[in-house]
């Protein structure tokens, strides 16, 4: 495949760790920067999420898990899905087309989708 580095397990967004689902969606410094810029500035590293199961539980119950206002619960879930989709898209663009990933550009894209 074009742009796929041979035998590379390194995160395509931060280049600092092994790319796993947990790293990509919970631990990646690139992702953490994007989350801190949003309308719900989450510090995922402070939430103690150990797995994608923990993250999904938070998404299914953001009111208790992260003190999201009940009126904002649906909006929070939609925003979280947009963030995850945008991150996955940026990762795939890097892998398949060798495009650079800029957290500010990703954040602007998320904002356009969210509005």
Automatic annotation (TrEMBL):
Family matches, as Pfam families: zf-RVT (PF13966)
The Reverse transcriptase zinc-binding domain, residue ranges: 7-35
Name under which the protein is recorded: Reverse transcriptase zinc-binding domain-containing protein
InterPro entries noted in UniProt: RVT-Znf
């Amino acid at each position: 495949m074009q742009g796929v580095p041979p035998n590379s397990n390194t995160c395509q967004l931060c280049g600092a760790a092994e790319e796993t689902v947990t790293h990509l969606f919970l631990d990646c410094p690139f992702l953490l920067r994007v989350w801190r810029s949003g309308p719900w500035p989450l510090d995922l590293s402070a939430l103690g999420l150990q797995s994608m199961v923990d993250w999904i539980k938070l998404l299914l119950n953001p009111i208790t898990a992260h003190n999201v206002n009940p009126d904002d619960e649906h909006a929070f879930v939609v925003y979280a899905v947009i963030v995850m989709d945008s991150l996955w898209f940026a990762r795939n663009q890097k892998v398949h087309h060798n495009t650079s990933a800029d957290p500010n550009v990703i954040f602007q894209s998320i904002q356009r989708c969210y509005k």
